[in-house]
Design brief:
Length: about 70
């Protein structure tokens, strides 16, 4: 099986940028339909566990955007 994720989560780099650019960061978060940045473990990690687990064993060739609905991969 081959699947890919397009994660969008609060990395150390993004946290630093957010701290140093609060106005831009607020606009950025407002552009995310879920109105928050993903959590590395709770949002991205759980999805990865599901992708590699037996419940999704028939899924292959998928790009899964884990970005709170921000990007559109039509």
């Amino acid at each position: 099986r081959v699947n890919a994720i397009a994660p969008h989560a609060l990395s150390p780099g993004l946290a630093c940028w957010t701290e140093n650019n609060p106005e831009e960061a607020a606009e950025f978060v407002a552009s995310i339909p879920m109105r928050r940045i993903g959590d590395c473990e709770g949002d991205i990690g759980r999805a990865v566990v599901a992708l590699v687990g037996p419940d999704l064993r028939y899924l292959t060739g998928a790009l899964v955007p884990l970005d709170g609905g921000q990007a559109f991969f039509g």
